[in-house]
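Below sits our specimen:

——
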Amino acid sequence: MRIANPIMSVPGAMKALLDLSEAAAATGLDGNYVELICLRVSIMNGCGTCIDYHTKLLRKANVADEKVYAVAGWRDVPYYTDAEKAGFALAEQITRVHVSDDVWDEAAKHYSDEQLAGLVIAIGAINFWNRMNVATGQKVA
């Protein structure tokens, strides 16, 4: 391992990130759907620690197996609503740091401004977690 995870070793960092996630959750987004978003982004970023963590949370919450297992291929399966697909597209583009007007406009059809803000915050937070874990070589415990 390179260094201890900064989130765990810098005073106040864990609380700040948890507070950010709580703020996103307070926007009325479905918590299980946010976990699916976190899983999708973690797969994109290759963060094994977060893939393991969010998969376990989704299983514990009894989210349908097909929704969990097919999240990487969300475009090609019938398990997700149009709103969920719009959120996945937004998550992918935010993760790649380019959001087209078409993707934003589609997401805006399904989510209120407050929920869109919550999605953006949740997506930003999981990207941050992924980057800290990947950069420091965190492994699944």
